Amino acid sequence: MLPTITVNDEKCKEPISCRKCLLICPTHVLGLGTDVGPQKFREIDPSHFIVRAVRFDKCSGCMDCVNVCPQNAIRVSFSGGDAR
Amino acid sequence: MTMGWKYAKPIKEKLMTLEEPGKALPFDADRGLVDEITAQCDIEALVESLKGKDEKVAGEALEAFGKELMKLTIELADGKYIDRTGEMVERVAKQTGVSFPHRFERYVELSILASRPTDRWNIAKATTKELVLQVSSCALNKAMAEAGLALPCKAMCLACFKVAADKTGDKLNMEMSKTLTKDGMCEFTFSLQS
Amino acid sequence: MCDWCEKYGDGYERWYFNPANYARRLYKIRKEETEASGAEANPQAAGGMAFVGRDFLEARERGDTAEVERIKQQIEGAMWLTHFGQVITLEEALKITDIMYPISLITCACRRSMEGLPDDENFTCMGMGAGMYKWERWPDTYRGGVHFLTPDEAKEVLTKLNKRGLVHSIYTFGTPYLAGLCNCDYPDCAAIRTAIDLEIKILWKGHYVAKIDPELCNGCASCVHRCQFRALSFVPNRNKAYIDQLQCFGCGLCATECDQEAITLVERASLPALANVW
Lengths: 84, 194, 278
Prior knowledge:
The complex is a heterotrimer.
Chain A: E1 4-7, H1 15-18, H2 20-24, E2 30-34, E3 49-53, H3 64-68, E4 74-77
Antiparallel strand pairs in A: 1-4, 2-3
Chain B: H1 31-40, H2 43-50, H3 55-77, H4 84-96, H5 102-115, E1 120-126, E2 130-137, H6 139-146, H7 154-168, E3 172-178, H8 180-183, E4 186-192
Helix pairs in contact in B: 3-5, 3-7, 5-7
Chain C: H1 3-8, H2 54-61, H3 65-82, E1 85-88, H4 90-96, E2 103-107, H5 109-115, E3 123-128, E4 147-149, H6 151-164, E5 167-172, E6 178-184, H7 190-198, E7 203-204, E8 208-212, E9 232-235, E10 240-243, H8 253-257, E11 263-267
Parallel strand pairs in C: 1-7
Antiparallel strand pairs in C: 1-5, 2-3, 2-4, 3-6, 5-6, 8-11, 9-10
Helix pairs in contact in C: 2-3
């Protein structure tokens, strides 16, 4: 069963320096992307990085990411609702 | 001799990082380089001047044209119209100690682009030992054919490339392995003397 | 024969031994306007998240095989033209360092994406060829900077990466132009996980298949942790390693670890059932 996994980008400000959720996930479900396209002649600013679920099919529902997030920004639900 | 590289670590004395984030850098050949060189090394005028000349005299004229073309290319490409690709080619060669092929290839490419911008050509091999250039459509070859001239125009290219090799200090064997008239393309093979 | 060798081998034993596939012009004539900063088509989608969307996983979960097949073909069709890889052995990787130049040591975009790995712990990837002179055009692909290596230095780096247990593979950037020599592991490598979890062939198997000689295997199991493709396991009752040859990608990591020389690489083409399994 595929979970719904949402990340509140307003709360999660600079995941590339925090990365707690990426490291704790036992099945490496989450990944970093950016909310802007590639930039010519400059690196993308760290504030543009966002966390998203990638490998939904590997999520066991352990909720470690939800619990580790210092900003309480991650929600994982297996019922379509906003369960914790 | 090893570098003693540590797994996944940067090599501090070699690491290049972005110098001025956001600054646009010119990597392609400058249009000004093309305009100045086509004005000074005019293929049409060259072909016109070859009419009625015997093979020896024409060969010398072609050679002189080639030398002048590369001299001018080097002067402008390293001066007034320096580009970021060229700067990086030099920097990388300094970092690795490997000059060939790209320092030489750079001048070769720019001399063709600048004097015959509509030619079709390709780099078919570019290793640290061998560079292969293939030209499948050439403005000089075409202009000579239209003028009814059958002269050994390779004298122009080879003299031109020789000036570049002298400039970069690469000791090269230059061979012309195919010609446009016979094989549908001119193929030049440059190999580093061992 | 491997499709790519057939199309782009040009008489060489493998398509990735053909120097033409690493050669490219340095220059074109600049367009009138100066190069503007901003988003254009980047040669490389940043990192590990790009290949497959949730729609594929949903189709797979509801058992919609037609939709699964449609998406798979769509992705493979696009990637095979632009950006895909093939597994090579260490020996092959070392050989390649002599037919392409320049060679750069750069950070891995996949591990940045999946682990948020800081740049100074992430220099495990290699960019190759003339395009590397223009790395500053798309610096995000080369976050943390670049260094340029001699062929001998590149061999040292590759050997160390292999010892660590990373799989070597070469990648196209506009097929058949080869410009990436990646050193990968599961599951953070987008190509490996997409190939073995989702069976979408962004990474092709290599030209070899590993084979165990049960007489020589002493059951030490030191090879088992070397496999990134779920092809190698251990059979306790026989006290021997076991290789699933149908699943093997032919990277050779298990063989380089075996001090009994019990594992050899055989040509994929020599095995009738595997000759066309890529």
